[in-house]
Known about the structure:
It is built from twelve helices and ten strands. The protein has 313 residues and is of the alpha+beta class. The strands form four sheets. It has a four-stranded antiparallel β-sheet with strand order 7-8-10-9, with helices on one face. Strands 1-4 form a two-stranded antiparallel sheet. Strand 5 (183-186) and strand 6 (191-194) form a beta hairpin.
Amino acid sequence: xxxxxxxxxxxxxxxxxxxxxxxxxxxxxxxxxxxxxxxxxxxxxxxxxxxxxxxxxxxxxxxxxxxxxxxxxxxxxxxxxxxxxxxxxxxxxxxxxxxxxxxxxxxxxxxxxxxxxxxxxxxxxxxxxxxxxxxxxxxxxxxxxxxxxxxxxxxxxxxxxxxxxxxxxxxxxxxxxxxxxxxxxxxxxxxxxxxxxxxxxxxxxxxxxxxxxxxxxxxxxxxxxxxxxxxxxxxxxxxxxxxxxxxxxxxxxxxxxxxxxxxxxxxxxxxxxxxxxxxxxxxxxxxxxxxxxxxxxxxxxxxxxxxxxxxxx
Length: 313
């Protein structure tokens, strides 16, 4: 069973809560992941470049810690405050057990090497079996040892409600794959959409908004979602609750069955912040009336407000 601790337990054994990476002036955003170390950001943003040294990443993960902000991280804080301040740490947050830190970094780095190998776009629809197969075939990746496979299985099968994520599980098997016949790559985006409703809705949005919006994230297989969730968990210093407030745990992302993200052309990283809700493009999107937002403001699913996330199914 995946070992996890509450923030209070972690404090007793000497770990920190409310932890963050130090070093960069600004966070770098990749899809819905925000992080600060330059080397880590490069590995996530540009997987064609060499990944950072895993030992250095693990050291940053373990050592660069700061306590929760005074007066904020208490268990009595309201649910809505957690959603509005989703990057804060709270006393009842659930943390990955410290003895899993090295394992989660190792798994993340190995998955990253597969992404380098197959390319960012193809990694979006890669199945779990394909992930393991590529790792076995290529020495540059290295086969996933049993401990890493077990960790991935435990992460997928674990109850995300323990972290505070209340959304339903929409993919029930770790080995579920995205059928090639059902996915279509979108030109100049590096992303795929499901044929049918998702593809038609995106095309209509682009046309009706005069090409002012672009696909920023489409289909995400279990593998892709897991890699993003691990990245967020590392950035959150093992705080699984904090990670799940801004990223659905593996198996819970609607990106795996139809949803997609859009952003304003040229808006960059701000497309994955509430700043997108202030754009004319978003206001026009709302005015159109036929597009729904998966995670609206003050939703009760344990997820921050995501004005960019278009609901399809």
